[in-house]
Structure formats: C-alpha cells, structure tokens
Amino acid sequence: MKYDSTLGRALHRELRCLATTLRPATILHYRGVANDFLAHLKRRFAYVRRADQLRRDPHILCWMEELAQRQPPLAASTRLARLLCLRRLFEGMADLPHPPRPGLIRSEDLPRCDFRLPRPLSVEDDQRLQQGLRTANDLLANALLLQRASGLRIGELVDLPADCLHHIADEHWAIRVPVGKLHSERWVPVDQDARDIVSRLKYLCTLAPAVPDPQFLLPRPRGRLVLIAHLRSKLHSVAGAAGCSIRPATHQLRHTFATDMMRHGVSLPGVMKLLGHTTPRMTMCYVQVTQADLQREYLKAQSQPRHFIPIPTLPPQVSADPASVLQTFQSALHLLDCSRQNLGYPKPLDVLRRRLLKFIDTAQRTYREKIKKDKNG
Q1: What homologous superfamily does CATH list for 123-290?
Q2: pLDDT for residue 377 is more than 70
C-alpha cells in the first residue's frame, strides 16, 4: 500500500524502527494492521492526513466497530491483537512534530478473549491417525508422526535442522529445537520410535522427487509456507481416510502429546519444559484433565499416607527428664493420628487425642514454670 499521507509515512517510519527488534513475521502482522487502518480512514475519513487529526470518536471507534462487524467474524483474540498493534504504533509516534493524541485506544476497548479448553485427540482418534500415518509412510506422514512423538509446533517442525537428533548419554537421545517463537531453544527427549522416524525422514529425503536440503531436516523446494500447507493437507486426508471423528489440526497433535505425557506421570513443570512454554498457565491450556484422570489421582492419593512428617523417634532410654517425657508424649500423639487415619477416624479415639493434647499442654506449662523458678531461685 502507498503511504501517500503524513500519517501513512509516520506509520511506515515506525514500522521501520520496529523492524530492528521484532521478527519479520511480526513486522508483517504490524504492517497488515497499519494498512487496514489506513484503508479504513481512506474510505470513511479521507480528510485525515496527519496523526494529530485523529480522534477517538469517530475515527478509532468507527474502526473498532468495523472490526466487530466483519464477515466472516473475527475472533476476539484477533481483534485484541490488532488493537494492541495499533496502540503500540501510536505510542511510538509520540516524538513526531504532530503526534497523535494520547488515549485513542483505552484498556476498556480491548476485548476479552474466550478461554479455550484443551483439544487433544481422543484415544481412539489418536490411534487411528497414527496407524494411518504409518500406513502412508511417506515424507509428510513421517513428519507428522515426529510432531506427535515430540510435541513440536508446526513451525518448529519445518525448521528442524538436519542434525537435530543428538545423543546425550547411554540410551538417552534428544531433539534440539532451534530458537523460534519464544526466542529460545530447548531439548526434547525422544525414544527409539522417534529416532526411527528421524532416520526414515533422512532416507525419504534422498528419494525422488524429494530434494534433500543440507540445512533442514524436511526439504522445502517451494518455501516454508508451502511445506506447512502440505503438512496440514496431508493430516486432513489421512484423518479422513482413517475414520477419525473430527477433522484435526496440526496443533492438536501438540495438545495430544501434552495430555499423554501428563497421564504417563510427567509433572506439570516437566510438560511445560517439553512444550517450550514460559508459564504453567499456558501449559494448562494444552493438558486435558478428564473425570477418569481425577478419579485415578484421587485413588492414588488415598493409597498413600497423608502424614509426610517423619515419625518422632523415642529416646533411647526413657527417663523422668522433662524433654524425654515431652518427646514420648509427642511420639504417642503421632502414632495415634496414624492409627485414627487407618481406622477411619472413630470418635472414641478423638476423645483420647484431646486428652493426650491436654497432657502435653499441662506438661509443657509445668516444666516451663519449674525451669523459671529454678532460674529465679
């Protein structure tokens, strides 16, 4: 789009400044928002040529209303991202000779995003899909199997280097995921099945018509985005042929991996590191906890003792020493609590526990007073 106004040129200048710190894909998103806003002004308010001519009402509010009424409807997260982008562009233009007014986009203008539940595949659909991918056994099918076995993002999958598989020690292997979406790299442990998939991918890349790429594990003769589109198309076709109940997305393989890891005993911090997340809240959007999972965890907790405090040890020789007597009482109280738990907390033992607590309290006060008198005497 041509930036033929002072406002357009100011936005273009700010985009060039942001390009020094943000990724090209992010700048592409910012440029799309700026072009959309300028096109809106050209249609509805052609007289606006400078940033200081912008007003919240009607220029910004009219654009927000247009975003909310577009067909097909834009998701709340999409509208939120566009408003945040435009607000950041306005904030960066504060040093202009004619800057935009502050407060054009306020906090109350930002739509609340819907909370999305995790979307892992059901156990049946997961088995059907994996079986269908193994039956296909071509380059794209094995790439999708690798994503399911390692929980990678689709962008991380296509960006894997040719030497992504590394030997750690003994039988421990891991895939090195390069710096990507969150500006960090990580190591994802893999089993023998995932290692076999990587070996098949390297072999399939040597067969025609595939052309091996010395830099990446997956060849991309027509570019990165085309490869991602082919992977998504392959997933849809295999899922349909395998009889899956839904039309899965590639990101659902990542949800399925996270849920599978959690059900096999991996802790929440462990799953967070496997997925490359920065907060547990983000990870909880990927992990599905069903009623069966809750019942299993509840029964597991019931089968384990609830008292994690070690049982106090009895003194080697019980004597009339005050410290020895108090330690004996406290050990008896702990053993009584364990017995009450095993017997289902019967009421007669509650009476005994209250009496024992009174004994301990009386003994502590008595010995404390005696020690105080001895010091004063």
Answers
A1: Intergrase catalytic core (1.10.443.10)
A2: no
Strands 165-169 and 172-177: antiparallel
CB count within 10 Å of CB 194 equals 20
Q: Within 10 Å of residue 132's Cβ, how many Cβ atoms?
A: 20
pTM listed for this prediction = 0.69
The 10s digit of each residue's pLDDT in 50-83 is 999 999 999 999 999 999 999 989 989 999 999 9
Helices (H), the chain: 6-18, 24-44, 61-68, 76-92, 123-136, 139-150, 154-158, 192-204, 224-242, 250-263, 268-275, 280-284, 291-302, 322-342, 347-376
State percent of the chain over pLDDT 70. 92
How is residue 243 written in tokens?
């009889």
**Cα–Cα dist 75/230, whole Å:** 25
CA–CA distances in Å: residue 163 to residues 167, 208, 258: 11, 21, 25
Q: Which of 47-51, 253-257, 277-281, 326-330 has the lowest mean pLDDT?
A: 326-330
- Give the C-alpha distances (Å, rounded to integers) separating 133 from 70, 128, 141, 189: 38, 9, 5, 22
Neighbours of 83 (CB within 10 A): 20
pLDDT tens for residues 344-353?
778 888 888 8
Neighbours of 355 (CB within 10 A): 10
Q: Residue 239 carries which side chain, given as an amino acid letter?
A: A
pLDDT band at 354 (very low <50, low <70, confident <90, very high): confident
What token pair was written down for 237?
Answer: 């076709």
Strand ordering across the sheet containing 186-190: 165-169, 172-177, 186-190
Q: Which pLDDT value is given to residue 319?
A: 63
3-class DSSP state of 56: helix
- The encoded tokens of residue 83 equal 């408003």
User: First-to-last CA distance in the chain?
Assistant: 96
